[in-house]
Amino acid sequence: MASDSQAEDEEQEDALLSDEEEETEEEDEEDNVDVDVLSNEEIDALMKEYGNVVRSDPEPRKSSAEDANADAEALSMATALATAANEVKAVDIKLFHVKPLIYWARYFLIASAFSMPQVNAIVGRIEDIAQEQYGKIPRPSGKPSGWTLMDFDIYTAGDVVVHIFLPSQREFYNLEEFYANAPLVELPFVSESSSSSTARSDAEGESEEEMISLS
């Protein structure tokens, strides 16, 4: 009886081993399935038929008029928010038109503050202007920190994205270099500041010339 029981156990073990070997062979066959690789001619034919895919965009495609309106409103809002940041002494304010590079945003506003109280002041001022002038509030992005993010939707998510950095965080993440190919938008207060500096320099130069002529 013992020998019969041992024989049955051995048969069961052999059957299990056989099943495992068959499963392993099936897995190997699946792993070794040939993958068809498109030739250059086939790729060219597909490109001619369907056109070039330059970016993946999950948002529904807008008409050119709707898209132009969205761009104009986003630019107006981004410029107003940049001006608001400037009013509370944010520094090194830059506005990038990132839409040509990415599908999920139109404008990036980047600014620096020197302390967390100043970050809070900038955030508060931007929120006030966005709500008062455009009826927009930022999507929740956590508490203000060394890199504070404010995401404003106009027509789609992320039409205007505001980044407020402490200097060390801005240098570390270096978004300007990452989006260096994005067009830089000229801001009105930067132009005014440059004009004032030029006028002041011209006035100082004229004053020096007058003093020289008098002497």
Describe the structure.
Belongs to the Iojap/RsfS family. InterPro entries: Iojap/RsfS/C7orf30 (IPR004394), NT_sf (IPR043519). One of its GO terms (biological process) is negative regulation of ribosome biogenesis. Keywords: Chloroplast, Plastid, Transit peptide. Residues 1-44, 204-215 have a biased composition (Acidic residues). The protein has 215 residues and is α+β, with helices and mostly antiparallel strands. It has a domain at 69-188: Beta Polymerase, domain 2 (2-Layer Sandwich). Helix content is 57%, strand content 13%. The protein is built from seven helices and five strands. The protein has helices at 2-31, 40-50, 64-87, 116-134, 167-173, 175-178, 188-214, and strands spanning 91-97, 107-112, 147-152, 160-165, 184-185. A five-stranded mixed beta sheet has the order 3-4-2-1-5. Helix 3 (64-87) crosses helix 4 (116-134). The radius of gyration is 32 Å and the shape is elongated. The termini are far apart. The relative contact order is 0.11. Residues 52-58 and 193-199 have low confidence and may be disordered.
Mean pLDDT level = 77
The CATH architecture of the domain at 69-188 can be named as 2-Layer Sandwich
Distance between the termini: 131 Å
Spans of at least 5 consecutive residues with low confidence: 52-58, 193-199
Number of helices: 7
Radius of gyration: 32 Å
What does the largest sheet look like?
5 strands, mixed
CATH superfamily grouping of the domain at 69-188 = Beta Polymerase, domain 2
Could you state the order of secondary-structure elements as H and E? HHHEEHEEHHEH
Give the CATH level 1 class of the domain at 69-188: Alpha Beta
Number of E-state strands: 5
Shape, principal axes of CA atoms: elongated
Q: Largest beta sheet: what is the strand line-up?
A: 3-4-2-1-5
- Helix content estimate: 55-70%
Tell me the fraction of residues in β-strands, as a range.
5-15%
CATH topology of the domain at 69-188: Beta Polymerase, domain 2
User: SS-based structural class?
Assistant: alpha+beta
Family: Belongs to the Iojap/RsfS family.
Subcellular location: Plastid, Chloroplast
Region (Disordered): 1-70, 192-215
Biased composition (Basic and acidic residues): 56-65
